[in-house]
Input
Amino acid sequence: MTASFILSGGRILDPATGEDNVRDLFIANGRIAEHPPAGAEIIDARGRLVTPGLIDLHVHLREPGGEENETLETGSRAAARGGFTTIVAMPNTRPPHDTAETVAFVARRGAEIGRTRILPSGAITVGRKGRELTNLAALAGAGAVAFTDDGSTVQDDALMRRAMDIARDLDRPIMDHAQDNTIERQGGVMHEGDASRRLGLPGIPTEAEARIVRRDIELAEATGCAVHIQHVTSAAGANLIRAARARGLRVTGELTPHHLALCDEDIDPGNTNFKMNPPLRTRADRDALRAALLDGALSCFATDHAPHSADKKARGFLKAPFGIVGLETAIGVTWTLLVRGEWMTPLDWLRRWTVEPARVIGLNSPTLAPGAPADVALLDVESPWIVHPNEFETKSHNTPFANWTLYGRAVATWLAGRLVWKETTL
Ligand SMILES: [Zn+2]
Output
């Protein structure tokens, strides 16, 4: 059963067509309609933005195996509330996405829940242990849209080269969490620099990222495989990606809202919600990342939504697991800093949450043109809201943005024409 809707008088933003215009939008039979459908529910969109649903290339949904932190159900709700209609699920579940069976389970369960499109990634190596390749063709056949061992970088260059050869033939990108274990001693909990020395905490050096980015670019050039660097944190990493793109290589990079908003000077060692991997780096890195986003070296945002239960995060800065949730603050943090901060136009901002991530995984550009699937978000970017983690739909509340005042949130989200999130006051 599908309902039809008229979103009345909103500001339509469509990066795929360049449209930025006030008009009505029609939804019928799961698609954007050309004409107003009879008997439609009318939604007052005046003063709001009507956008294609957002895409997040980097989400940890924890199921199977980590349901105390998040499930495919709660993660789907968080995505819908965050304005996301397509998310890519990372492979570090238990078991990991290293068999066709697990990949197919995540895809099937996501479709059953039907609140957001869950596209599974496939692991590059068996058990994400970096020793033996998975059956990449079988994973792709089961629905894997990209290959990554996110969280545990493949260290073996020859193995990564073989993975890229196969991924290229399967027309799937390799996504890499860039961290060289020969430099990072595996004990670091934050960026290695002045702030870590002041706090007396073990550090993760920038070179750990830069070395793997350099390696991956070399292998992308050698194999012709598309390579996407996940959660880039450093000026060095962004500069390498910019140079590779200038040479025409198939290399992209993503920026998280937290690496855009925060740096190592902001870390409160009593708050483990500032602990994530890769870590927050220096103020200069943070500024370089913003510049890289503006000039296109980093083409898209991604959240690295990484839910952890409160008891795990209560183990102190040295022992707590890495990661923070991000789906429900992504619009607010990035809109507030970049559009309200007058660094970007609304269309440029939106392109980095829609058209650009779609391009990385080879999806059609999301659009509000008639005939397109009605994956739509209705955004309020005018009224401030305060981040109250207890109100999140995600099962975990580990965010460094608690009590921040933000502008920008989804007040309603449609997936294939079905209303999957709506604020009670709407
Ligand atoms: Zn990662």
In short: The longest helix spans residues 207-223.
